[in-house]
Every structure is written in structure tokens, then in C-alpha cells.
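1st attempt posting a full record on here, be nice pls
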Amino acid sequence: MQKMRSDAEKIYTQAIQASLPDEAVKKAVAGKNFAFQGKVVIIAVGKAAWNMAKAAAENISHTIDKGIVLTKYGHSQGDIPGFEILEAGHPLPDENTIAGTERIIEAVTGLSEKDTVFFLISGGGSALFEKPAGNLCLEDFLDITSQLLKCGADIVEMNTVRKHLSAVKGGRFAALCAPAKVYAIALSDILGDRADSIASGPACSDQSTSAEAWAVVEKYGLKLTEEMKEQLSVETPKEIRNVEMQITGSVTELCNQAAAAARALGYQPMILTNSLDCEAKEAGKFLAAVGRTVLKDGLPLKPPCALICGGETIVRITGSGKGGRNQEFALAAAEGIAGMENIVAAAVGSDGTDGPTDAAGGIVDGGTAARLKEQGISVSEILADNDSNRALQAADALIMTGPTGTNVNDLYFMLCGSADE
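the predicted structure (as C-alpha cells):
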């Protein structure tokens, strides 16, 4: 079992390493004739902002007049010449979020049609890059974001609401940059790579409407102040003319890299889906059920094999514990494969963090549930209390990568070994 766990660690490590944004940014700017005439400003927002900014700074053949990185606490990796490095809160915005966003707005204010803005976007930008619109304040955003996180809304639903309450989302940042030309390079953490949903689409014409935002409010019974209601009814820009966008990096590539790593280790890989978006606990139970079928009946593959999924699950918070979607997925999978041999499951966030914890996810096997039971820990009770972090820590089953510098959704996979593994 130890070898299979080691193999699992190699698979997610290699998949994440292959999905880092450095090469993606290089490819996005390579060979392009940008025809610079005026100032060049680089703005990078999101969990991968530092890495993307550094790659851009090293590969754009022009003096950078101003550069700003706005990323999550602990995700910057030192100075970049010519850049102001700022950090702020995630998954909830804080005072530094507002201050950093205002610094970015200042940097693009007053530009001319001869100037160029490189806008580098990665996952986490929805929380990290924010200024409330109209008469709204930070507390309003904390309230609505908290409600959206707790109710189980998916990322598209969350962004549909948040962009209508924002001064920079849903194409409004592009409008602030005008008449300057904006080259946007986006590292996608959105299933289907919908451009106006990545970081809530600051530089995209917005496909969502106020009516759709109101539908999300009604679906989940969200509570709004009068100021929120007023702002939610203001439409976002539907036509943006000063932006050229390129989407690079995605969960599809993350899954492909995991499959390649698994194959190199002797496992026949099968990518079941790259758009998993159901409840984390249910997804963990499902993958465990598929693993049981593999070991019992050799379907859909005979072992040794690797069953791979990518996407972003959700957690409905009903308890008071601490954890994240990947940890809940892993713990639910552990319950589903309890007592089985030659099976390992892993769930990991490509950005290196999972919920309000310092873990990236969890890695479990057929003996994880028994080890917890010996310590008096019930998996079902832990899941009911959303306390997966405590349980996985007790089982020595946490995945700890630290900030990775990328963010292309989550990777879930199960290794099913033969009897001699």
C-alpha cells in the first residue's frame, strides 16, 4: 500500500508541476507583435498572479512602466523588479483586497489609446480583485460571499451575483482601462473555460444578466440589503472593444498530465470526467464505488489502473468543523473503500489550498477508516460536522503541498492495484 501511496503522490505532483503558468504565459506572448507605442502596464490578479507576472516580465520585450501583483496571502515569492507586490484575503475579501484593487485602478486611470495593459488573471481573482460598486461596502461583500459559500452555490452562480455588485467585475475593469488596449491572459479554473466567469470576468463582456443574478438569489434564499438589491439591478457591460483575451491552462490539461504520470508508473489511466461539479461527499462516494467495481469485476478497467476526474465540487456547510471540498471528498472515499486492499484515493486542489486550511486535500486507502475508528473517530459524524481536516490529520492523510503557483481546479483520482501490489 505504501508504494501505491507513493505513486499517487508522484501523480498529483507531476500533474500540478506540468500545469504551472510560467510556460503558459510564455506561449501566450511568444512571437506576438504587440506594436507598443506608449506605456506598458502589467496587472496580475489571482492565486497564480506572482508566477504569471514574473513570466510576463521576463518575456515582454518592452520597458514596464508599472506592474502590480495582487495575490493571496503567502502566495508571493519575493520581489519582481518594477512591480508592487500586494497580498489580500481569500476566499473572503478583506481591507487589503479593496486597497489593492484601488491601487490597480489608479495604475490604469488616465491611459491613452497608445498605452497597453497586460491583464493576467487566475483563479481566486473573484475574491482578491474587488471593489464594491455604488454605495456598497466591504461588509456587504463579506455577507453575500459568505452566504454563497455556505449555501452550496457553484462558482458560476457565485460569480453571476458578485459581478453585478462589483465596480471591476463583469467587464467593468476593461472599461476603466479604456481607451488603452488590454491583452488579457487567463489561467482557467472554470469548468468549460467560460471567459466571463474566470475571476468574474473583469475584462470580458458579460453574458450573465441581472435577471440571472436575481434567480440565484431566489434559488438559495439569499438575504440582500436595499443597497444590494439596487446594485444587482444594474446591468454589466455587454460589449467590450478594447480587449484581446487568450485562455491558457485548464483542468483538462491537469487531467491529461495526471493520466500521463499514471501510465508511466504502470497504471492504465481512464479520465472519467474533467467537469465534476457535484457535492464533494457524493463525488467521493461515487469514485469509491467505481473502485470497488474495478477490484471486484474488472470494470471499467482491470487493475492496475487509475480512475481520474477533474473539476470543482461543492460543500454544503451544516456543521462547525474545519475542512475543504477535497478533504471531504477524500474522507467520503475512505468510508467507501473501507477494508479493501490495493486501493488508494486522492483529492487535491491544484493551487495547494483547500478551504480555510493549509492542506491541499487528502490521500486515503482501505485502512484509513479503521485507523480513525481505533482513535474513536467516526467518519460519518466527522462528515456531518464538516470536520474533515481533523480526521485526515489524525489519520496522517492530509496532502500538504504549500502554495503551488497555479490554479486549474481540482484533481481526483483512484489507483486500483493488482493483488501483488
